[in-house]
Amino acid sequence: MTEALRALHDCLSAEADLHGSLVPLEPPKSFGQQIMTLVDPVHPVQTLFSLDTLREYLTSSVLTSIDTQRTQPVFGEGNPRASIMLVGEAPGAEEDLTGRPFVGRAGQLLDKMLAAIELTRSEIYIANILKTRPPNNRDPLPEEISAHLPILYRQMSLIQPRFILCLGRIAAQTLLGCSTPLGKLRGQKHPYHGATLLATYHPAALLRNQNWKRPAWEDLKLLRHLAA
Ligand code: URA
Known about the structure:
Layout: H1 3-19, H2 31-36, H3 51-59, E1 77-78, E2 84-88, H4 93-98, H5 105-116, E3 125-128, H6 142-159, E4 163-167, H7 169-176, H8 182-185, E5 190-192, E6 195-200, H9 203-208, H10 213-227
Parallel strand pairs: 2-3, 2-4, 4-6
Antiparallel strand pairs: 1-3, 5-6
The structure holds uracil.
C-alpha cells in the first residue's frame, strides 16, 4: 500500500469505528451553504445568485403589510466582499427617504465609531434585519422579521463575511435565536455557522445612554482585534 492509500484507509476505518459501519464522508458545508439552510428550500431567494437580483426582488415585492407604506426599501450597502458585516434593526425616517442604511443621527455616530477603529463604510457591508421602516419606528413584529429575514440571510450567504457585528438587541437576538439580554450577549465571540458573531449596543441607544459608550468601545476594539 502506498503512503496515501494507507492514510485514506486509516481515515475510513476511523470513521467506520465511530459510526459502526462505513458511511460516506460528506464535505463540510460552507458558511454560505449553512446560512441558506435557515431559509425555506422553496423560498424565491434560493434562486437569486447576486446582490443586484436580490435587491430587485426586495424592491418589487410586498413581503409583509408595512412594505406597502414605505417610501423606499433599505437593502443595505457596502463592500460586497467585506469580511465584516454590520447588522442593524430596521430603517428609520431618513433611511426610508434615502434608501440607505444608517444615514440619520445614529448613522453619523456609527461612522465615528467605525473611524475610531480605522474602518470606513467602503470596507464593510451594512444591512438591517428589516428592510422597511416600521411605522413610528416601533419595534419590528415577529411576522415582519420572518418575512424579511430570508433577504438578510441571502445577503450573508453571497457576501460571506467572517465577522458579523450586531447593532442592538433585536439584531443580536434574531440572529442568535435567543432572548438573552444584550448586556449578556455583548463582549464575547459567538460561533455563527463558521463565522464569528459579536453584539454591541445600537448607536441610537448610545445617543440616549452615555454609560453604554465604554462597553461599546470595548466591543469595537474586540472586533478590530479579531478582524486584524
Ligand atoms: N437604525 C437601524 O437599526 N438601522 C438603520 O439603518 C438606521 C437606524
